[in-house]
Protein backbone atom coordinates (compact mmCIF):
# COMPACT_ATOMS: atom_id res chain seq x y z
CA UNK A 1 0.00 0.00 0.00
CA UNK A 2 2.89 2.37 0.68
CA UNK A 3 4.04 2.11 -2.94
CA UNK A 4 0.53 2.84 -4.22
CA UNK A 5 0.26 5.89 -1.98
CA UNK A 6 3.68 7.24 -2.98
CA UNK A 7 3.23 6.52 -6.67
CA UNK A 8 -0.22 8.07 -6.92
CA UNK A 9 0.92 11.12 -4.95
CA UNK A 10 3.96 11.61 -7.19
CA UNK A 11 1.88 11.32 -10.35
CA UNK A 12 -0.75 13.72 -9.01
CA UNK A 13 1.57 16.37 -7.59
CA UNK A 14 4.52 16.22 -9.99
CA UNK A 15 3.37 14.45 -13.14
CA UNK A 16 0.09 16.25 -13.74
CA UNK A 17 1.52 19.79 -13.51
CA UNK A 18 4.32 18.82 -15.90
CA UNK A 19 1.80 17.29 -18.30
CA UNK A 20 -0.23 20.51 -18.12
CA UNK A 21 2.88 22.46 -19.09
CA UNK A 22 3.61 20.11 -21.98
CA UNK A 23 0.06 20.44 -23.26
CA UNK A 24 0.13 24.25 -23.08
CA UNK A 25 3.63 24.68 -24.53
CA UNK A 26 2.77 24.26 -28.25
CA UNK A 27 -0.15 26.68 -27.95
CA UNK A 28 1.98 29.56 -26.70
CA UNK A 29 -0.17 30.13 -23.62
CA UNK A 30 0.40 33.41 -21.80
CA UNK A 31 1.94 33.55 -18.33
CA UNK A 32 -1.35 33.80 -16.45
CA UNK A 33 -2.83 30.80 -18.25
CA UNK A 34 0.27 28.71 -17.56
CA UNK A 35 0.35 29.63 -13.87
CA UNK A 36 -3.35 28.89 -13.37
CA UNK A 37 -3.19 25.58 -15.24
CA UNK A 38 -0.15 24.39 -13.29
CA UNK A 39 -1.64 25.57 -9.99
CA UNK A 40 -4.85 23.62 -10.57
CA UNK A 41 -2.96 20.54 -11.78
CA UNK A 42 -0.69 20.67 -8.71
CA UNK A 43 -3.54 20.62 -6.19
CA UNK A 44 -3.75 17.57 -3.92
CA UNK A 45 -6.31 14.81 -4.32
CA UNK A 46 -9.85 16.01 -3.65
CA UNK A 47 -11.48 14.88 -0.42
CA UNK A 48 -14.53 13.78 -2.38
CA UNK A 49 -12.42 10.84 -3.59
CA UNK A 50 -12.86 9.26 -0.16
CA UNK A 51 -16.64 9.59 -0.30
CA UNK A 52 -16.75 8.11 -3.79
CA UNK A 53 -14.46 5.24 -2.83
CA UNK A 54 -16.59 4.46 0.20
CA UNK A 55 -19.95 4.68 -1.57
CA UNK A 56 -18.86 2.77 -4.65
CA UNK A 57 -17.13 -0.07 -2.82
CA UNK A 58 -13.56 1.06 -3.38
CA UNK A 59 -10.66 1.01 -0.96
CA UNK A 60 -11.72 3.86 1.36
CA UNK A 61 -8.74 3.55 3.76
CA UNK A 62 -6.34 3.75 0.81
CA UNK A 63 -8.21 6.77 -0.54
CA UNK A 64 -7.98 8.44 2.87
CA UNK A 65 -4.24 7.75 3.02
CA UNK A 66 -3.67 9.13 -0.48
CA UNK A 67 -5.65 12.27 0.35
CA UNK A 68 -3.71 12.82 3.57
CA UNK A 69 -0.27 12.23 2.06
CA UNK A 70 -0.97 14.30 -1.05
CA UNK A 71 -2.30 17.19 1.02
CA UNK A 72 0.84 17.34 3.17
CA UNK A 73 3.16 16.76 0.20
CA UNK A 74 1.47 19.60 -1.69
CA UNK A 75 2.90 22.00 0.88
CA UNK A 76 6.28 21.29 -0.73
CA UNK A 77 5.40 20.51 -4.34
CA UNK A 78 3.01 23.38 -5.09
CA UNK A 79 5.61 26.12 -4.46
CA UNK A 80 8.13 24.13 -6.50
CA UNK A 81 5.74 23.79 -9.43
CA UNK A 82 4.84 27.47 -9.26
CA UNK A 83 8.53 28.39 -9.23
CA UNK A 84 8.84 26.60 -12.57
CA UNK A 85 6.18 28.71 -14.26
CA UNK A 86 6.08 32.11 -12.57
CA UNK A 87 8.04 34.50 -14.78
UniProtKB/TrEMBL annotation:
Q: Which organism is it from?
A: Tistrella mobilis
Q: Which PANTHER family match?
A: AUXIN EFFLUX CARRIER FAMILY PROTEIN
Sorted keywords for this record are: Membrane, Transmembrane, Transmembrane helix, Transport
Query: What is the protein name for this chain?
Result: AEC family transporter
Would you tell me the Gene Ontology cellular component terms? endomembrane system; membrane
TM ranges are 7-28, 34-53, 60-86
Q: Where does the protein principally reside?
A: membrane
The way this protein sits in the membrane is described as: Multi-pass membrane protein
Where in the cell is the protein located? Endomembrane system
InterPro entries given in the database record: BilAc:Na_symport/Acr3 (IPR002657), Na+/solute_symporter_sf (IPR038770)
